[in-house]
C-alpha cells in the first residue's frame, strides 16, 4: 500500500481508503471481516459519519478498531446533522451540538481523538460561521482533532472555505464523470495544502465491471434511482471509457481509482464498502497510475465532454 500526506497536515493516509456509507445498515451488515482485511492490506483511512446507518457505521468501525493500535488508523468522520424521531435529518452546526457529536462519535469509534472532522454537506453560508471554526481551531489545539473541513455536494465554495479557515480537509464528488474539482479546485488545494477525499470515486459502481450497460436487471438501484434515460447515458459513457480503464490488466474499478490517483493533489480515494473481495480489488489499485496517453484518450472522449463538468 502506498501512502500520501493529507494535504500539508502531516497526516499520512493510505491512497486507497474505505467509504463506510451505509455500513452496518440493512444492506451492509456483517462486514467486519472486510474491515479487518482492509487493515491487513495496509489501508488506514476510513470515511464515515455520525448519522450513517443511524450511527451503526461508526459503531461497526469502533468494534473492529478496538483490536488495533489507534495510531495505525486514520478516522475521517462528520457532524452537522441530527436525525429526529421520524427519521428525518435536520442540520445542526451549533457549538453545543459540535461538542455532543464529537463526544458521541469518539465513544462509538473507541477513540479519544478524530483525525479528520468534516461538516456534513453544509450550505454555502457555512463560510460565515467564524465561531464554529474558532471552536474547531481550539479542538485542534487541544489535540481532540487533527484537522477539519467540509464534505461537499459541489465544490463551488471549497475555495472560499480554505481561504477563510485553517481547516484543511475537503471531501468532494470527484470521479471520471464528475470532474469539476479538477479545474475548479486542484490548483488551490495544492497551494494551500488541502487534503482531498474524492467521494463516490467509481460513480456509484458505473465505473466497475459489475455495472450492466445493456438490459440491466429491473431492480438495479441506479436504474430505479435515475430512470432509463439517465441510466442509458451513463451506460454509453461506461462503454466508451471501459477499454482505456481496463488496459494494462486493471479491473475497471481499479482503472477508475488509478485515474483519480494520477492527480497528486488527491490524498486518498474512498470507494464504498461492499465485500471483502471488493476491498482486495480496490487495495490492488494502490500504485496504479494512468499513462499520459491514457489520460489524454479519456479527455478526448466526445470532444472532451467529460472534462470540466459532471456528466449527468
Ligand atoms: N458525505 C457525503 O455526502 C457522501 C455522499 C456519498 C458518498 N460519500 C462517501 O463516499 C463513499 C463512496 O460512495 P458510494 O459507495 O456511493 O460510491 P462508489 O464508491 O463510487 O461506488 C460503490 C459501489 O460500486 C460497486 N463496486 C463495483 N466494484 C467495486 C469495487 N471494486 N470496490 C468497491 N465498490 C465496487 C459496489 O456496488 P456493488 O457491490 O453492487 O457492485 C459499491 O456499492 C461512501 O461510502 C461515503 O464514505 C459521502
Structure, described:
α2 links the parallel β4 and β5. The radius of gyration is 19 Å and the shape is globular. α1 packs parallel to α11 and α2 packs across α3. The strands form 3 sheets. The chain has a 7-stranded parallel β-sheet with strand order 3-4-5-8-9-10-11, with helices on one face. Strands 1-2 form a two-stranded antiparallel ribbon. The mean pLDDT is 95. By secondary structure, the protein is an alpha/beta fold. The chain has 12 helices and 11 strands. The site of NADP nicotinamide-adenine-dinucleotide phosphate (NAP) has 25 residues, from α11.
Name the descriptors.
312 residues; alpha/beta; TIM Barrel; seven-stranded parallel beta sheet; two-stranded antiparallel sheet; 12 helices; 37% helix; 15% strand; binds NADP nicotinamide-adenine-dinucleotide phosphate
Blueprint (SSEs and pairs):
Layout: E1 3-5, E2 12-14, E3 18-19, H1 32-40, E4 45-47, H2 56-65, E5 74-79, E6 81-83, E7 89-91, H3 95-109, E8 114-120, H4 130-141, E9 145-151, H5 158-164, E10 169-173, H6 180-184, H7 186-192, E11 195-199, H8 221-226, H9 228-245, H10 252-261, H11 276-283, H12 292-299
Parallel strand pairs: 3-4, 4-5, 5-8, 8-9, 9-10, 10-11
Antiparallel strand pairs: 1-2, 6-7
Helix pairs in contact: 1-11, 2-3
Bound molecules: NADP nicotinamide-adenine-dinucleotide phosphate (NAP).
The site of NADP nicotinamide-adenine-dinucleotide phosphate (NAP) has 25 residues, from helix 11.
Amino acid at each position: 500500500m502506498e501512502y500520501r500526506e493529507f494535504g500539508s497536515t502531516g497526516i499520512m493516509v493510505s491512497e486507497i481508503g474505505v467509504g463506510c456509507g451505509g455500513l452496518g445498515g440493512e444492506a451492509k451488515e456483517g462486514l467486519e471481516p472486510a474491515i479487518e482485511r482492509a487493515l491487513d492490506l495496509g489501508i488506514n483511512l476510513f470515511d464515515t459519519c455520525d448519522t450513517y446507518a443511524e450511527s451503526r457505521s461508526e459503531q461497526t468501525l469502533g468494534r473492529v478498531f478496538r483490536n488495533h493500535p489507534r495510531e495505525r488508523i486514520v478516522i475521517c468522520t462528520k457532524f452537522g446533522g441530527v436525525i429526529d424521531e421520524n427519521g428525518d435529518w435536520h442540520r445542526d452546526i451549533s457549538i453545543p451540538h459540535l461538542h455532543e457529536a464529537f463526544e458521541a462519535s469518539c465513544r462509538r469509534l473507541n477513540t479519544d481523538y478524530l483525525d479528520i472532522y468534516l461538516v456534513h454537506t453544509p450550505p454555502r453560508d457555512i463560510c460565515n460561521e467564524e465561531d464554529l471554526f474558532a471552536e474547531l481551531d481550539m479542538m485542534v489545539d487541544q489535540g481532540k482533532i487533527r484537522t477539519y473541513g467540509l464534505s461537499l455536494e459541489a465544490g463551488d465554495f471549497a475555495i472560499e472555505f480554505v481561504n477563510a479557515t485553517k481547516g484543511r480537509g475537503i471531501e468532494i464528488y470527484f470521479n471520471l464523470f464528475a470532474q469539476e474539482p479538477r479545474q475548479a479546485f486542484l490548483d488551490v488545494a495544492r497551494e494551500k495544502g488541502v487534503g482531498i477525499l474524492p467521494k463516490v470515486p467509481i460513480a456509484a459502481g458505473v465505473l466497475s465491471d459489475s455495472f450492466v450497460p445493456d438490459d440491466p436487471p429491473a431492480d438495479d438501484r441506479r436504474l430505479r434511482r435515475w430512470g432509463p434515460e439517465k441510466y442509458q447515458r451513463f451506460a454509453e459513457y461506461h462503454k466508451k471509457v471501459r477499454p482505456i480503464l481496463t488496459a494494462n490488466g486493471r479491473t475497471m474499478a481499479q482503472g477508475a481509482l488509478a485515474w483519480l490517483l494520477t492527480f497528486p493533489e488527491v490524498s486518498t480515494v474512498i470507494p464504498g464498502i461492499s465485500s471483502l473481495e471488493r476491498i482486495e480489488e480496490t487495495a490492488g489499485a494502490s500504485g496504479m497510475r494512468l499513462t499520459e496517453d491514457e489520460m489524454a484518450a479519456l479527455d478526448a472522449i466526445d470532444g472532451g465532454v467529460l472534462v470540466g463538468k459532471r456528466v449527468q
